[in-house]
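ok new one. same drill as before - structure tokens go in, u give me an amino acid for every spot. 411 of them this time. try not to just spam alanines like last time pls lmao
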């Protein structure tokens, strides 16, 4: 059977694109240079963030900028050598985060993220992945009452405007909900709608297995071998060349490499992040974001996973896990963490765009070439809905939502 679509990149986004196409009866090959779901989609905090109706903005307050510039806060780090190449993009990111522009971006973003649970739910049900997910939300813990009050005001506003539900817990209620917490916090904001996954890489594996069960083909190959071929596209795989009418670039943080070769200059950058698992004492019941220290503690199958904030560096530059050191110290104030599971921390790359929105839709200069990347902080959440949108656009059928705000032509 001839291949209709080549999907390049088997992270959450590429896998879901391939699966959504296969569910619609298309013949699809999913190509990755390694096993699926081993990069960013493996190492995240595993939260399906229904509450994230507003994307992660660049800080605008002077105090936050000062902390970031002098690496004082735990949530931002950067490599000096990367600044000349990344600074112009960070400036645009800061510019797009100005209140007026940001409000318009958040409107687009909220229309996309509102489908994240229903689209994951459908794929989880078909893939038998229910055992990996908890539908109980996650919490943001606060060390100070001032930070809690600010977050409560913001949450009430988001609930009113977007219907994302939350509850507030004072220090006592939080201590009862999380008996493993050894520090007394001011309280917590509990986002009620999100889901949490105990092994993000395993969820990608289940979706890949469902794709294969539907007749999809998984192949090893280098996406940078993609070339126009006849009326379509060709890529080299370890089992020989594959040809199809359509090709989807879903390479997450590596999308810039291929799109640049094809003549596109898209304003992409990466925000690196680290994680490590720890064997714990009583641990936590639900994921906890320690907003004032810039880390997440997520209970996972492999242990308590501590994830860090953003590091601006070149993709492939040697790891500098200073944030993880700070995060680990902050986490130890909260829970008992006897020892790390891995000797070396995991390092991954969030695939960012300057306007915080993913790039989804047709490649402006090439027929049959499609983009699906740049999902930044929420690609694990957005994989199924992004995959569905791409499948509908390739088919030319009615789309779930207006894809125009995500088109590559906006740059
Ligand atoms: C610390 C951290 C915490 C996070 N927490 C969350 C969270 O809680 N919730 C959430 O929604 N998101 C979270 N994210 C973001 C999320 O993980 C990413 O947005 C998402 O995984 C991106 O998926 P992707 O498929 O686009 O990219 P990836 O998962 O990186 O997949 C890209 C794929 O392309 C392949 N590839 C690259 N180059 C080539 C090539 N030349 N040839 C063939 N294949 C190639 C790679 O092998 C890889 O499999 C977090 C990220 C980090 C770093």
């Amino acid at each position: 059977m001839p291949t209709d679509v080549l999907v390049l990149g088997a992270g959450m986004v590429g896998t879901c694109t391939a699966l959504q196409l296969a569910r619609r009866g298309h013949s699809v090959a999913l190509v990755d240079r390694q096993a699926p779901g081993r990069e960013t989609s493996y190492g995240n905090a595993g939260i399906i963030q229904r509450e994230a109706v507003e994307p992660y903005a660049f800080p605008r307050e002077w105090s936050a900028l000062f902390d970031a510039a002098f690496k004082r806060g735990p949530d931002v780090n950067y490599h000096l050598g990367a600044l000349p190449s990344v600074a112009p993009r960070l400036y645009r990111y800061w510019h797009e985060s100005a209140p007026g522009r940001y409000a318009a971006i958040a409107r687009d973003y909220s229309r996309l993220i509102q489908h994240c649970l229903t689209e994951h739910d459908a794929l989880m049900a078909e893939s038998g992945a229910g055992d990996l997910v908890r539908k109980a939300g996650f919490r943001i813990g606060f060390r100070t009452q001032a930070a809690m009050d600010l977050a409560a005001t913001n949450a009430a506003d988001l609930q009113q405007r977007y219907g994302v539900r939350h509850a507030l817990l004072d220090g006592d209620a939080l201590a009862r909900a999380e008996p493993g917490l050894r520090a007394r916090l001011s309280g917590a904001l509990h986002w009620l709608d999100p889901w949490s996954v105990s092994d993000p890489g395993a969820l990608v594996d289940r979706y890949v297995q469902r794709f294969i069960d539907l007749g999809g083909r998984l192949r090893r190959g280098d996406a940078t071998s993609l070339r126009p071929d006849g009326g379509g596209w060709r890529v080299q795989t370890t089992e020989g060349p594959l040809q199809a009418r359509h090709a989807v670039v879903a390479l997450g943080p590596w999308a810039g490499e291929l799109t640049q070769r094809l003549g596109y200059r898209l304003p992409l950058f990466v925000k690196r992040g680290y994680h490590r698992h720890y064997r714990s004492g009583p641990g936590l019941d639900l994921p906890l974001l320690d907003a004032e220290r810039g880390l997440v503690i997520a209970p996972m199958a492999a242990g308590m996973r501590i994830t860090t904030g953003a590091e601006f560096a070149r993709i492939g530059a040697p790891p500098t896990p200073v944030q993880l050191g700070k995060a680990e110290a902050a986490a130890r104030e909260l829970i008992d963490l006897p020892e790390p599971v891995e000797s070396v921390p995991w390092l991954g790359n969030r695939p960012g765009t300057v306007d915080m929105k993913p790039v989804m839709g047709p490649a402006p200069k090439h027929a049959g070439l499609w983009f699906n990347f740049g999902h930044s902080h929420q690609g694990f959440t957005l994989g199924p809905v992004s995959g569905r949108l791409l499948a509908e656009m390739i088919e030319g059928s009615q789309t779930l939502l207006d894809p125009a705000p995500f088109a590559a032509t906006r740059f």
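The two ends are 37 Å apart (CA to CA). and btw The chain has a mean pLDDT of 95.
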